[in-house]
TrEMBL record:
Its EC number is 2.7.9.1. GO terms for molecular function: ATP binding; kinase activity; pyruvate, phosphate dikinase activity. It comes from the Bacteria. The keyword Translocase does not apply. The lineage of its organism: Bacteria, Pseudomonadati, Pseudomonadota, Alphaproteobacteria, Sphingomonadales. PROSITE patterns: PEP_ENZYMES_PHOS_SITE. PANTHER family: PHOSPHOENOLPYRUVATE DIKINASE-RELATED (PTHR22931), PYRUVATE, PHOSPHATE DIKINASE 1, CHLOROPLASTIC (PTHR22931:SF9). The keyword Ubl conjugation does not apply. Residues 403-470 form the PEP-utilising enzyme mobile domain. This is Pyruvate, phosphate dikinase. NCBIfam families: PRK05878.1. Residues 55-268 form the Pyruvate phosphate dikinase AMP/ATP-binding domain.
Length: 587
């Protein structure tokens, strides 16, 4: 890839540009390579190219030519030919924002596939069924994502012309045969998915700026669907639901990555991988330790095994359930991997509020009727009326009605319903499926894999969902509220935060007799944006209580106003907010 490139960067591990330019996925690939781990070669179209595209609706000048040169570099790196009649190169085209947005934007696999490359793959692999299955996967994904076909029922036994006809019938558009045309269409689709409804709603909920933009990572394909010693999976270096210091993940043999995250297939435990491809499993365990030590955080690793050889596709800081976030932060600080301030800054105060939300006492469980059971994917308790559609969940949620979203499996199109729901339950999928990953990112109780057809009968019923045990109970069960003293991890976090916070956080019982401004008696104080002006007018009180003072914004306003203390119950969320007020979280 001779000559300078304005819009594209080669990923070879020799440099590590910032995530704001190349996105988290490409940054991860470069980091994996720098650590000497096995990664398929890749290049990235930068966020600057995306910004130029959004400004005009067209590729910036020179990008098409740079894509040609970058593909030529991939061909040289792999010894394969894009669209070639022998040793064909296929690529994946993936989004990559600076801040992880799991499942919110588009991915297209097996780009470069056509009748000619199918014949070449069949000859090279000695497996015509594998080549046909790969062609089917490309046609279905490209047709639905890029051409918006919304077509289902693509059968690997069908002639490829049948798939092309289905797409044309649904859209009036033709599935491109030319690999370069496919690549341009895929890059365009990823660019445009930044402003998809699901992506915008997720950013708004997570307070991610809309102007960050996405990069596009183009990576040589490796094939988890090749043979019995091939597969794909996801590994967490520690348990993402509980925080237990044990590798946790799932593996799906003879599959590609989309099969796992889609939730349409239920993967097997990692022990299955250890039995089928032990060498690749051992390499994965070693890579997990290397990455966690290097990044000083729990790692979420996507991988593919091709004929017994492990390839890492990306690694990122894992989205953890609130309980797991607390445990891993405290234990990593105790292990010396991170300092105490970093541990506190890794846990948003809203996660502590979720963690201190109600739990089901044992007596209530014994007396309740269990309606269904699956795998607990994100702890917490959600109570509400079961609804089967995301639009309905959003509508009812906006009316103040508590709902539980029940789906066969979720997709990015369900994010608005997941945000509105008190809990998410699915019939299919495992703990690394879309429903599980996004629920952990949102802090929503989640149960997956309840069994095909098991949830449809619950529609309209009020249920209680326990995301820890995976149980779904009839009715609204009694709940109790945990406290920050009896839980060892929360108590440890409280002690550290008290030492580091620039303001004291006092419970209501401890504040009796203290000089505190009663914000509950002041009009407008329930809105955090009014607090700076209200506190600026305070001439005598040393502290404040009530109103919005216990919110993150309220804590910052109290610190800025020079107060000595605020009153909050529970104390820990406000303590964390106080420590984090003037500290940039360590990645």
């Amino acid at each position: 890839m001779a000559g300078s490139m304005e819009w594209i960067m080669r990923l070879d591990g020799t440099n590590l540009p910032g995530k704001s330019l190349i996105g988290g996925k490409a940054h991860s690939i470069a980091r994996l390579m720098a650590l000497g781990l096995r990664v398929p070669p890749a290049f990235v179209v930068t966020t600057e190219a995306h910004a130029a595209f959004l400004a005009t609706g067209e590729f910036p000048d020179g990008l098409v030519e740079e894509l040609e040169r970058a593909i030529a570099w991939l061909e040289e790196s792999t010894g394969r030919v894009f669209g070639g009649a022998s040793a064909p190169l296929l690529v994946s085209v993936r989004s990559g924002a600076a801040i992880s947005m799991p499942g919110m934007m588009d991915t297209i696999l097996n780009v470069g596939m056509n009748d000619q490359t199918q014949t070449a793959l069949a000859a090279e692999s000695g497996d015509a069924a594998f080549a046909q299955d790969t062609h089917r996967r490309f046609a279905q994904l490209y047709g639905n994502v890029v051409l918006k076909a919304d077509a289902k029922g693509f059968d690997s036994a069908s002639d490829p012309q049948v798939w092309r006809d289905m797409i044309h019938s649904a859209t009036g558009k033709t599935l491109p045969d030319d690999p370069r045309e496919q690549l341009l269409g895929a890059v365009t689709a990823v660019f445009e998915s930044w402003n998809a409804r699901r992506a915008r709603r997720y950013r708004e909920h997570q307070k991610i700026p809309h102007d960050l933009g996405t990069a596009v990572t183009v990576q040589a394909m490796v094939f988890g669907n090749l043979d019995e010693r091939s597969g794909t999976g996801v590994l967490f270096s520690r348990n993402p639901s509980t925080g237990e210091d044990q590798p946790f993940g799932e593996y799906l043999g003879q599959a590609q990555g989309e099969d796992v995250v889609s939730g349409e297939f239920t993967p097997k435990p990692l022990a299955t991988m250890a039995e089928i491809v032990p060498e690749a499993f051992n390499d994965l365990m070693s890579a997990s330790k290397t990455l966690e030590r290097a990044e000083r955080d729990v790692q979420d690793i996507e991988f593919t095994v091709e004929r017994g050889t492990l390839y890492l596709l990306q690694a990122r800081s894992a989205k953890l359930a609130p309980q797991a976030a607390v445990r891993t932060a405290v234990e990593m600080a105790n292990e010396g991997l991170i300092d105490r301030r970093t541990a506190i800054c890794r846990i948003p105060s809203d996660r502590i509020r979720i963690l201190m939300s109600p739990v089901i006492p044992e007596a209530a469980r014994v007396a309740a009727a269990q309606l269904a059971k699956g795998e607990g994917a994100c702890p917490g308790v959600g109570i509400g009326m079961v609804v089967s559609g995301s639009d309905e969940a959003e509508r009812l949620g906006n009316e103040g009605i508590a709902v539980v979203l029940a789906r066969p499996t979720t997709s990015p199109h369900d994010v608005h319903g997941m945000i509105a729901a008190t809990a998410v339950i699915t019939e299919e999928g495992g703990s690394t499926s879309h429903a599980a990953v996004v629920s952990r990112a949102l802090g929503k109780p989640c149960v997956v894999g309840c069994g095909q057809g098991r949830l449809s009968a619950l529609n309209g019923q009020t249920v209680t969902v326990d995301g820890q045990t995976g149980q779904i109970w009839a009715g609204a069960l009694e709940v109790v509220v945990p406290d920050e003293v009896s839980d060892g991890m929360l108590a440890q976090l409280t002690e550290w935060a008290e030492q580091l916070a620039p303001i004291r956080i006092i419970s209501a019982d401890g504040a009796k007799g203290l000089d505190a401004l009663d914000l509950a008696a002041i009009e407008g104080a329930e809105e955090s944006e009014n607090l700076p002006e209200i506190l600026a007018g305070n001439q005598t009180a040393k502290g404040a209580a009530g109103g919005a003072i216990a919110t993150d914004e309220g804590v910052r306003a109290a610190i800025d106003a020079g107060l000595e203390f605020i009153v909050a119950d529970p104390r820990l969320p406000s303590l964390l907010a106080a420590v984090q007020a003037n500290v940039e979280p360590v990645p």
